[in-house]
Amino acid sequence: MRLLLRSFRRLLSALRAPRREQRAAALWRRCLTGTTVVCALTALATVPPADGSQSVPPDLDATLQALASYVDRYYARAQSIVGTERITIQTLASDLTPDGPGRRLVYDIRVEWGLGDDGEPTGKVVRELVRASGRAPECLDPPSITPEPLAMLRSSAQEKFIFSLAGTARVSGRAARLVEYRGRRTDPVRGEFPDQCARIDLGNRMAGRIWMDDVSGEVLRVDEHLPGQVTIPIPRSASRHWSGRSIEFERVDTSIRYRRVTFTDPVETVLLPESIDSVTVARVPGISRLRVLQEYSGYRRFVTGGRVVE
User: Fold this and answer.
1) HSE toward the beta carbon, residue 102, CA cutoff 13 A
2) Three-state DSSP class for 150?
3) Which of 45, 177, 236, 277 is the most interior residue, by most CB within 10 Å?
4) What is the C-alpha separation between 114 and 173, in angstroms, rounded?
5) Which class for 43: exposed (0-12), middle (13-18), buried (19 or more C-beta within 10 A)?
6) Residues 35, 162: one domain?
7) Do 213 and 169 belong to one domain?
8) Domain with 39 in it
9) How many domains are there within the chain?
10) At residue 166, does pLDDT exceed 50?
11) Are residues 33 and 119 both part of a single domain?
């Protein structure tokens, strides 16, 4: 009877044990007649670490969700921050060196919520011109309101891109997860030709790479490029300013870097843009090679009561 009770208790204990432990126990029983070393290593792999932690392989869906969550938090914090944007617009020679004097602009900038082209709320950069100098065409100056670069990572915008994981790297000593993306090309490329400058959105033709902090989910860097040539027809209505029939983009490269900015009273550290460097090469009469460098500094934060904290 005692032997029967003991066997019954063992059976109940086994039924209550987690499946992982059951598999480990069954594996050890099979190993009694197998190779001891191999079985020992295999069995240890089925047992969770002693401290309860587990190394979970990167998951694309979880990574995209973390990026979207970070961008929402970033916009919520950035709306109380203003800064200074210094822009240099420089035409380039065939070897991509400066060709003549450039145009320089200084703006006060802030981030606001607004509606995107799809009607969804998104972040927008709002500029107020402080001063400008140089002879480059003024139509090359950025609009007073432009989409915030990280807007593409919001949940409502991610469906316009194809994402994939691309390994790991380090940025300024911080472990980063690499996420690559490319546009789905669901929408045609559109251009506006109001004067001697054209405004063309190549967003759904671009591809790029995101460096995401592996712990905090912060975006540390974004590099973007045009993976192939894109030709935009010039409408007849623009013939007054444009002599060609089309614009052919050969190269569009952009690199966005971020840095930590610490505020006081209360103390808070936020990752904010440090610079955006863009180079465009196109086959078109007039300006065909252009570099635009945007540098950010002088961040201030608005706190309760309208005070500005450096």
Assistant:
1) 18
2) helix
3) 177
4) 35
5) middle
6) no
7) yes
8) 2-45
9) 2
10) yes
11) no
